[in-house]
Amino acid sequence: MNERLEQEIIELHGGICSALADPKRIMIIYTLADGPRNVTELSEELGLPQPTTSRHLKVLRERDLVNTERSGASVIYTLADPKLIQALDLLRDILRGIYTRRASVIEIRD
User: Fold this and answer.
1) What tens digit of pLDDT does each residue of 29-43 get?
2) What's the chain's Rg over C-alpha atoms?
3) Which of 27, 60, 67, 89 has the highest local Cβ count within 10 Å?
4) Residue 99 domain-assigned (yes or no)
């Protein structure tokens, strides 16, 4: 593969991972999996201040993880790709495995 193209892919991958590194953004993604929302609905549902929600949505939008559509005065957010939920669920499975192994090590030591 072309070295420049490979570097671009690595940077894109890093950008997506950094967007997913914040728990609030993960909560937003899971909420959007249930259906489209505007920033006010997301803020109220998640108990976050509207500016905080807007800032996180901006990051997700910049990484192309959410789509926007104007509806009158509101901007409606949707997931760009439903496979994102599958990826997050897979990561949760990995975390469960890690914590299960850690717990078994602790039990062995006791």
Assistant:
1) 999 999 999 999 999
2) 17
3) 60
4) no
CB 76 within 8 A of CB 38: yes
The domain that holds 25 is classified in CATH as: 1.10.10.10
Q: What is the mean pLDDT of each run of 10 residues along the chain (110 residues)?
A: 87 91 96 97 98 97 96 95 95 91 74
Q: What is the DSSP string of 39-58?
A: HHHHHHHHT--HHHHHHHHH
Question: How far apart are alpha carbons 61 and 64 in whole angstroms?
Answer: 5
Q: Are 69 and 78 a contacting pair, CB within 8 Å? A: yes
CA distance from start to end of the chain: 51
Angle between the N-to-C axes of helices 23-33 and 39-46, in degrees from 0 to 180, rounded to the nearest 10: 110
Task: Indicate the number of domains in the chain.
Answer: 1
Domain with 53, as residue range(s), is: 3-81
**Exposed, middle or buried: residue 65 (CB in 10 Å: 0-12, 13-18, 19+)?**
buried
